[in-house]
Amino acid sequence: MSSESAAPARPVADGLVGRQHVLALTAILLSVAMATLDTAIANTALPTISESLHVSAAQVIWVVNAYQLATIAAALPFAASGEILGHGRVFAAGTLVFTFASLVCGLADSLTTLVAARILQGVSGAAIMSINIALIRFVFPARQLGRGVGMNALVVALAFTVGPTVASAVLSVASWHWLFLINVPVGVVAVLFAWKALPHTERQSHGFDPFAAVLCAGLLGIGLLAFESLAHGGDWAPVAMEALVAAICGVLLLRRQAGHPAPMLAVDLFKARSFKLSALTSICSFSTQGLGFVALPFLLQSTLGYSAVTTGLLMTPWPAVVAVMALIAGRMADRYPPGLLGGVGLVALGIGMASLALLAPHAAAWDICWRTALCGAGFGFFQAPNLKALMSSVPPRRSGGASGVVAVSRLLGQATGAGLVALCFHLSGQMHAPRAALWLGCAFALAGSVASVLRLAPGAREAAPMPSRL
């Protein structure tokens, strides 16, 4: 990068106003909705894709796994590149590539092509999901940051809620290819709005380290692969090898970026106690959500005898209530301490998980719905305030690093929850595993609540110290 291109740009003002605010926010939320929907709809379409492409269930699962692994591997490198090149540029480029990858997915006629396109979707999706919260910080004034992250949480929750319904509706009238092709016009609009209205954020003078990006991808991607292999009862030898490679990548990454003004693995930000506790709270809460979303279908279908369609309806109150609570909690986060709001929300989530674990063998539909709704209310009450706490505890110039931690915390939490459900099945068997997983989710939620409340202690709200070189 030339010295001219590396020169810091003039910092953006405290939020956008008028038409630019509307266009920028629309671009962010449309892109986030696409990336989130593609996670939800792909799961629903796996049986149809398997039959259409004449591949086994074990093979077609890579349509999901490839996307997830690529996203978590690329999240922190893209967050770092946003600080160097400008968050708006990286976000717009990510949306453009995601739209192109969706077109390739929609035109795919083999599993190999589809998985390759899903990897490209995952990489570009990382550019979207690792930077969106950083951009929200510059689109909204500081006093309304809670409202901004609440709107982002609302869109994510709505996408998860309507994802299976959208997938079912599309599959009822068209082939699975259209699940991806519908992204193309939405993506084009999002790209146009992004190039036109996203704010020009301050750009840092240090260069991008490609080798550090490879090490970071190895640490997170291979580490997650090792955990999933272990959770599914894989052979010890390959699991140990994957874990060793991930650990080596981590050690080399820390050594390579020791003393760096803005390390890709944002260890500098974890010097702030508030940031550290907020990240821990996020991982605990998303682990609870992962445990719940994976364990509940087994409990409702295998143990309680509900059909797959009914199970989907019984679980809908969870993300639906998250969407409602996201806006409410987001506005409250601008007035009340996030540590308190997050603590209360995660206690409610823990109670909801415990109540689901205690479901009677012949529980009625309404009895299940109020419990899943309680889980959604607790999670929704936590999410937006916690996002605000994470972003507010770091200086604006490190918003990209903080936003990357937000994305990785979510992905690691969800993957941890799903992997622990598989481990419960491996250790406890079909009958007891779902309830054991729900109790484990309750424990994660209560642990997250304790971490959240600790943010109220004196000295927990300091911002992360920044090196003098910045």
From TrEMBL:
CDD domains assigned: MFS_MMR_MDR_like
Superkingdom to which the source organism belongs: Bacteria
Primary subcellular site in the record, as a coarse category: membrane
Pfam family, one: MFS_1
The entry's keywords: Cell membrane, Membrane, Transmembrane, Transmembrane helix, Transport
GO cellular component: plasma membrane
GO molecular function terms listed in the Swiss-Prot or TrEMBL record: transmembrane transporter activity
Membrane topology per record: Multi-pass membrane protein
Boundaries of every Major facilitator superfamily (MFS) profile domain copy: 24-460
Transmembrane segments: 21-45, 57-78, 90-113, 119-140, 152-171, 177-198, 210-230, 236-254, 275-300, 306-328, 340-360, 401-425, 437-457
Localization of this protein: Cell membrane
InterPro entries: MFS, MFS_dom, MFS_trans_sf
Name assigned to this protein: MFS transporter
